[in-house]
Design a protein that fits this description.
Blueprint lengths: L2 H12 L11 E4 L8 E7 L2 H9 L4 E6 L12 H12 L3 E4 L2 H5 L5 H8 L3 E9 L2 E8 L5 E5 L7 H6 L4 E4 L4 H9 L4 E3 L2 H4 L1 H15 L2 E4 L7
Parallel strand pairs: 2-3, 2-10, 3-4, 7-8, 8-9
Antiparallel strand pairs: 1-4, 5-6, 6-7
Helix pairs in contact: 2-3, 5-9
Length: about 220
Amino acid sequence: MKLERLLEWIDRLLATGSFDDVSNNGLQVARTGDEVKKVAFAVDASLASVRAAAAAGAQLLVVHHGISWGGGIKRLTGGAYAVVKAALDANLAIAGYHLPLDANRTCGNNWELARYLKLTRVKPAFSYHGNVIGVTGFNAHGKKIGVCSGGAGEFAEEARRLGCDLYVTGEANWSEKVAAANVGQPMVCAGHYATETFGVRALMRELTRALKVSAVFVDGDGRI
């Protein structure tokens, strides 16, 4: 599978061009050669995930949290240098997809979480920089649940305004927890990493089904 074709397929599925995102979505580290026989998937472009992807024989690592944000990498030092050097040494390309992989209805983190929680009447909710990335839905007991993966504690007050009986996110800082308590919004912080494995795994399933490419998932500790 040609790298360019594979990335174009992901871009179409996730509609990456329609998002105003601090992440520089798409290819962030190139490789020599354009043939991809195996793709590794991980939540983060960490040194552990790069090494594991290379050891597994992958030519491309697809992640939710890439290494290029906003103005890009300003200095190749410290952790950024370690990750980039490991990728270049292994001739491993890295592509990152942030908000597009939160919001996608087919394989996004939040729609996948809604399916995992068996929510019905699911609707988009929670706008971040003009991008609607989360959802609301109803559980088997008729309770309205708000869902927004990752570090989305800031939406707890909005969840209250939407009439949510419970708001589920990955993590919240202290002031966001206080704000939720102040408006009486019950909130579950299920883990930033844990809530963002759902979309990565779902994207892997969609890609292997559609393109018949071999793929592996790398967990946060670098294990396949």
